[in-house]
Amino acid sequence: MGVSVDKVINGVCITVTGELCDEIEIEEFFNILDQQITTEAQVTFLDASTLEAAIIEKLADIQSARKLEISVVKSYLYSYMYKLGIRCKYNPMRNMSSGIISKKLQSAEVKLGREEVLYFLENINKKYGYDYTEYQVDSIMRRIKISMLRANTDDFTGFQNLVLENDSYFEQLFLDFSINTTEFFRNPEVFQVVKNKVLLHLNFYSHIRIWCIGCSTGKEPYSLAILLEEAGLLHRVQIYATDINPYVIEEAKNGMYSMDDIEEGIQNYRKAGGENSFTSYFELKGNYIKIKQGLKKNILFFQHSILGNGIINEFHLILCRNVLIYFNNSLQKKVLRYLSDSLDKNGFLVLGKSGGILQNGGYNYFTKYDEINKIYKKKELV
Ligand SMILES: C[S@@+](CC[C@H](N)C(=O)[O-])C[C@H]1O[C@@H](n2cnc3c(N)ncnc32)[C@H](O)[C@@H]1O
């Protein structure tokens, strides 16, 4: 980990190795950037897949004032910067996809068998501790094919070896497995019911515990925080916001979004019955927006897989929206049991609009509260 500076004609090249998350290193990096006011600077991030909000803000500020070329090696960081309107070059020089693509493969050329895929998933779990063995296998197979195309190979045995022997290939496969689609106030009618009905029940508690599972880049927990703030409850609430994917958790902590996100948010917020100005919850920074600090302070973001063992708390409300759909039926059943065990005896569960609990034995643990919006109450177990 570190920051190194090389002088080149008319300027400097700053190379950042490691994740740059240590405060002293960040300070050192900022000092170096501040010294280069008159010379042209080029910064290359070699290993980072995400960057802290303070670093991104600094880069954006400098770019608006003077010439600063930014290069990134990781595709995840490139997409993130691009979303936020920060000009940068994708330079996969140390990345596994940097090999010359010798032939263009078509996804149809890649043939996979279920048994060998399951064996591969077991090996991934043994090596990296991520268990995909009970995810929907068809979807996993599609995603493996995408990752194989990215690695420019149609040889599944060779690809398995690459992933199991090289962290970078696993990282890319992990990202290909991860579907992080989300919106502010997604399915606004659900938020309307939470606001008008569920909060009345939660108001009863002096300290309200909420768990947002599979929170992705944070739009769902921040929507909840806005709702709770407007109901005058936020100061009594602790929201746990978790996701298996550590990169989306870093994005969520940053709370920085694109201008397109705000447009979509405005529409959904109105449909959810919001009466304030949605943009008043953000600092507007030119090319991007940043959630205001006051909405962050009651949210604890951390990486967590819902498939790990152990109850982390007893919650009054759990949102697990658009996560179970990626699991097979037997895993959905186990997770529903786990969610029930993680709820207070009068707790509520909100699932995604396309998910349901009927087919998965969920009625052993939950009763209907609002079936249309997939809101359930914990059933008292006898
Ligand atoms: C489609 S997004 C849903 C985001 C948000 N809940 C919503 O509905 O807008 C699904 C999220 O679930 C996360 N996820 C998948 N498997 C998980 C697991 N085992 N534990 C926790 N999160 C998981 C993914 O990383 C992804 O961010």
TrEMBL record:
- Organism from which the protein derives: Clostridium tanneri
**Domain CheR-type methyltransferase, which positions?**
105-379
Pfam family membership, one: CheR
Q: Which domain of life is it from?
A: Bacteria
Name of protein: Protein-glutamate O-methyltransferase CheR
PANTHER family (alphabetical): CHEMOTAXIS PROTEIN, CHEMOTAXIS PROTEIN METHYLTRANSFERASE
